[in-house]
Every structure is written in C-alpha cells, then in structure tokens.
C-alpha cells in the first residue's frame, strides 16, 4: 500500500484506469470527485493506493468538506476482490483521519451496487441518505425574474460573504466557513453571488471540469428570499451563461428527499441520471 501526501500525475492516471476497469465490469459510474484529485495538497494524505506489483488494484479517496466528517469513495479491481483490500484501505484511512478531528465517516456507493452496500454494512456503516445525479437536457429556458443577477465572487469580502451564506443555508459549522473560502480558490472552481440590485440573496458555484463539462454545486438562496422564483431565475441565468460559453454537459446533485429542489431542477431541464447512497459510521 502506498500512503503519500499529494497525488502524482502517474498515480492519478492509474486511479482513472482502475475506475475504467471497475465501471466496465460493474456497469456503474463511480463518484470519485476527479477535480479534487487534480488539486490534492502536497502536505496531506488523501489518497490510499493498493498495488499488486506495479498495477493499482485498490483505491480509497478522502474528502473532508466539513470539519466533523470525511467522505470516502473507493474501488477494488474486479480480479482482486474478496481479498480484504478494501478493508485494509479503510483501516489505513482511519489512522490518517484520527488526527483531523473528524467524528464521522461517510462512504459513497452507487445505489445499484448491492455488493457495495453489503461491503459497507459489513464494515459497520449504516445507510444515511441518497443523492440524485442530474444532467441538463441542453435546452435553455427564459429567466422568470430579470432583476436577478450573478456576480463572480472575486474579492476577499465576496468570498467571505459566500462562505457565510453557504454555512447558513446548509447549516454548516463555523469552522467549515474557512474550507468554503479555500475551495473557491481551486482551479476550475468559480463562486457567484446571486444578487437583487446590490443585495446578495444567495450563492451558486460551478466546477468547470473541462471546456464542455460543468458541475453546479453550493446553490442556495437565503430563507427570507425563497418562494419568489428568484432561485429559479438564478439557476436559469447560470445555465444560460455556461451554455453561451460552450458548455454542453451541465450536471448537479440533489438529496433525494429534497422534493422542492428536485422539482426546481426538473423545471430547469435537469433529469435524474443515477443515484448514490451514503453510509455513515461514527468514530466515537
């Protein structure tokens, strides 16, 4: 097993190759957060690599978006399964996470993967919630409120405002605000303020994966401004802006139980492509 800070270009290529082998065998798409894999900090271990000779056969990635929890997503080569590789990776991950102050592990598994569910349950993780991965249909819609605008959050005070609104809307802890500001500076990540006149009423973020593919996240409108169609107007404006720049594949994720958001996204041209299940395990 290789446990080193950062993720080299060669290691990243090996992870992608392993993902391809797994997806072709299982017929499932894995959530690997590839954009974050390209920008791993060199001072911290976030990727655990299990080799058989010079062939990568097991991988586990750590993503800490909030201080108290760490998301884990991993895979094992189909030819090397049932050998305890994933369990070994998780055991090593626990050691790495011990010093981070996190109290919860969150494992992500494709909803259709029965073997993935059984594996996680055998490790003591319990089902928590599901998310839908949704894809835009390629048709732009007319904005419902022309007085809603998007402004790139480029100044320090803008990023701080985005972080505060994100923490308020998603009920994040204060310590996670700093993580939101840091994340906004990663390559390909762009944060926007949703404004009515000069008043910020929400925020939306985009991860520009490549020149044609984008992923929307962190979309929220402050509670006092909800139910007025302004969120729909902001989302429509963002889609239009990305479409004009040549992005043809626009995706987002939503909690399966959030029926209001699901309805909003469907009304803006998004449809469910697949689902992921999230399993939690307490470290306390």
Automatic annotation (TrEMBL):
GO molecular function, one term: acyltransferase activity, transferring groups other than amino-acyl groups
Start and end residues of each N-acetyltransferase domain: 2-142, 148-284
Top-level taxonomic group: Bacteria
InterPro entries named in the record: Acyl_CoA_acyltransferase, GNAT_dom, YpeA/RimI_acetyltransf
Keyword list, A-Z: Acyltransferase, Transferase
Matching Pfam families: Acetyltransf_1
Gene3D superfamilies given in the database record: 3.40.630.30
PANTHER family from the UniProt entry: ACETYLTRANSFERASE, N-ACETYLTRANSFERASE DOMAIN-CONTAINING PROTEIN
Name of the protein in its database record: N-acetyltransferase domain-containing protein
Organism: Ferroacidibacillus organovorans
